[in-house]
Each structure stands twice: as structure tokens, then as C-alpha cells.
Automatic annotation (TrEMBL):
Protein's organism: Mesoterricola silvestris
Record domain LysM: where: 33-81
Coiled coil: none
Protein name: Peptidoglycan-binding protein LysM
Xref: CDD domains: LysM
UniProt xrefs under Gene3D superfamilies: LysM domain (3.10.350.10)
Superkingdom, taxonomy of origin: Bacteria
Length: 365
């Protein structure tokens, strides 16, 4: 049970998996501590450690009411502790309560375990998110205040990952502060066309993809040094570090009304891009569809993807006109959740899939 801090300076909380919407930055009052929960910690134990009495655990809970159920705290959660309120020395717990109370212990066997929510979108997904910027990458980085990553510390390596130091062209003159976190974003595809636009007449925009998060450690007027905190893809020079707001976890409310044949609801969308431009996708992957806020899609929507399939495969001739006239069904492939929207496109995460998903598969409400 290390990880306690006594400074009154703002403390950045590292992103981690938690059931609760934990504070992302804490400035503890003078005399208070911030304890970062370790594996195996309970409020009962922390009450004994910090306040000298396990029965004092409600004093910790009342300072951290973002914890909705005191029985469940998670490694990485930040807890404010007021050590000055310790009233009972270790070993004197019996003096602080009647015998009937002082001998009580938590009954872990009878404590019901809650059903944990399934997150359809979390921080892990955010830092590998692909999306289309309709006005192009240059416009996006200019408007979002992106900084070019132009160098790194270890010149013997080209691919960078967790713990590596990078240099970029933004500093105190651009409003950056030590501890600021930025999301690394690369240009994946310039001048992207809809797959159905075989003549390449109209570009949809540029495809960008987020790769990881860096934290500023050293500042100069017009440049900075940052450490890569977390990267799920290799990071290269030439990517951009873009200011961002910590995303909220989104609970996946899976639909029960799914199965084949899939009833199609207009307007129908199509999958037009798979993360990293892969040939196939499956559960957990990200895809981009060709409709967005203009068609009423919003973050959190649960969609269904399907594929037209002939009822009798023996009737397939190879002739598109004849095959289109054959009896067919809209075969259920899986469920998607919208996690980012633009005017004419949206990024979705595949929650469930029965088989491989391809560019061109149908998406419906």
C-alpha cells in the first residue's frame, strides 16, 4: 500500500479501467493525502492503515462519493484521505466501539457481486480510433491545435512505444503546461474515396487514426519534450500530438431484437473503411460507415450490420443482374456502437460478430 502523495499540487490520474467515473485530476486540501488504489486494497483496510481503525472506512468514502458502491474500488482509483481525523490508534479498536460492533468483520461470502457493465467504448478504444476528417488532415490539425512530432530521444530506433521521449513544436507560447496529455494522431489515408465511387470523382476526406497518448514533461517557449504514456500502435515522427478531452466510458446496451433476416430501416449505411485499412474486421475492431449526424446518428447508438445472401447458394450464376433477382435474405452479421460522428460519416466499434465483416456490408438501425 504505497502510492500516497502529500503534495497540494494538482495530481493527474493515469487512465485505467474502473467501473466509476473517477476524477482525472485532484488537488488535495492541505493536510490531506491521495492514495492510488493498489490490487487487493479495500476501504476496510485503508481505514485501518490511514485512520487507525477499519471501522473508520466511511470517513474515506464520504470524501470520495464518486465511488458509488464502497465495496468496489479498482486499482488506479484515486482516494482522498484525511489523516488528521484519525482518532483511534492501531490495536485500540475495541475502545472505539461496543463489543458487539468491534468484533464484527465483513462477511465476504454473503456479499453479492454486482454484474459489471460491459463497456462498448473505453480509453483503450479511444487511443486507436480511426475517423474521417472531411476537410483534410491539414485543416483538422490546424483547427484542433495539433503539434508536429519532429524528433525523438533514441535516434537508433524508428518505431516508438511506451516510455520513449518525443519532441514536438509547441511549448509555453502555445499554452502548454507540464503534465498536459495529448493524443498522437497520424494520417492513415490521404484523399479517401467512397468504395462505390469507382471513378474517383469526389473525395470524402482524409482518414486519420489515433495511436496513443503522450504527457508533457519539459517545456520551452516553442517546443516540448513528452513521454509516451500508452501506445497501442507504433508511433513515428511525422504524426501530430493533439489536445484532447478525457473520454467517458460508454456502456454497451446490446440489443436483443437481432437475428436473421435483418429488417432494414432507411436510410441504410455501408461500411466503407476498416481500422488500419485491414481486409476483414471482427468483434472489438473499429469501422467507419458512410452516414453521420446528417442522417441522425449519434454516439452510443447500437446498430446492426448485415449482408445480402441468396437463400439457395446453388442458384448463384456469377451474373450480377441474374443473381440480384434470386430470392435472398439479409443475413445478420453483428452489432456495432457509434463512438464518433462527423456530418457524413461515423466511426463504430464492433461489439459482436458472427463472422468476418467486410467493406460494403450493410448497416441499419
Amino acid at each position: 500500500m504505497q502510492s500516497s502523495k502529500t503534495t497540494a499540487e494538482p495530481i493527474k490520474v493515469a487512465a485505467h479501467s474502473s467501473r466509476w467515473d473517477y476524477p482525472k485530476e485532484i488537488t488535495p486540501p492541505a493536510g490531506f493525502k491521495v492514495h492510488i488504489v493498489q490490487k487487493g486494497d479495500t476501504l476496510w483496510d485503508l481505514g485501518n492503515t490511514y485512520l487507525g481503525n477499519p471501522f473508520s472506512w466511511p470517513q474515506i468514502w464520504e470524501l470520495n462519493k464518486w465511488v458509488k458502491d464502497p465495496h468496489w474500488i479498482y486499482p488506479g482509483d484515486p482516494l482522498i484521505v484525511d489523516a488528521s481525523r484519525s482518532a483511534v490508534a492501531p490495536g485500540k479498536e475495541g475502545d472505539a466501539a461496543p463489543y458487539e460492533v468491534s468484533t464484527l468483520r465483513p462477511d465476504l461470502r454473503s456479499r453479492p457481486k454486482p454484474t459489471l457493465d460491459e463497456y462498448g467504448f473505453s480509453f483503450q478504444d479511444f487511443i486507436q480510433l480511426p475517423f474521417i476528417t472531411p476537410k483534410g488532415a491539414d485543416d483538422y490539425f490546424k483547427k484542433s491545435g495539433g503539434f508536429l512530432i519532429h524528433g525523438h530521444q533514441d535516434r537508433t530506433r524508428g518505431i516508438l512505444s511506451d516510455g520513449d521521449m518525443v519532441y514536438f513544436n509547441g511549448g509555453t507560447n502555445q499554452g502548454l503546461k507540464a503534465g498536459d496529455r495529448l493524443v498522437v494522431t497520424k494520417v492513415l489515408k490521404k484523399g479517401f474515396f467512397h468504395p462505390d465511387d469507382t471513378t474517383h470523382r469526389t473525395k470524402i476526406g482524409d482518414v486519420l487514426q489515433q495511436q496513443g497518448v503522450v504527457r508533457v514533461v519539459t517545456l520551452y517557449p516553442d517546443s516540448s519534450v513528452a513521454v509516451i504514456e500508452h501506445a497501442l500502435d507504433g508511433i513515428y515522427e511525422g504524426a501530430y500530438a493533439v489536445p484532447f478531452t478525457e473520454p467517458a466510458n460508454i456502456v454497451a446496451n446490446l440489443r436483443k431484437d437481432v437475428g436473421s433476416p435483418v429488417p432494414l430501416q432507411e436510410p441504410l449505411a455501408k461500411i466503407i473503411f476498416l481500422r488500419e485499412d485491414r481486409p476483414v474486421a471482427a468483434a472489438g475492431d473499429m469501422v467507419i460507415i458512410d452516414q453521420g449526424t446528417n442522417q441522425g446518428f449519434k454516439v452510443g447508438d447500437i446498430l446492426v450490420t448485415a449482408r445480402r445472401r441468396p437463400i439457395d447458394s446453388a442458384t448463384i450464376t456469377g451474373d450480377p443482374v441474374k443473381d440480384a433477382a434470386q430470392p435472398s435474405t439479409n443475413y445478420f452479421l453483428g452489432q456495432l456502437m457509434v463512438v464518433r460522428t462527423e456530418a457524413a460519416t461515423a466511426t463504430c466499434r464492433i461489439l459482436r460478430s458472427k463472422e468476418e465483416i467486410f467493406v460494403g456490408d450493410i448497416v441499419t438501425r
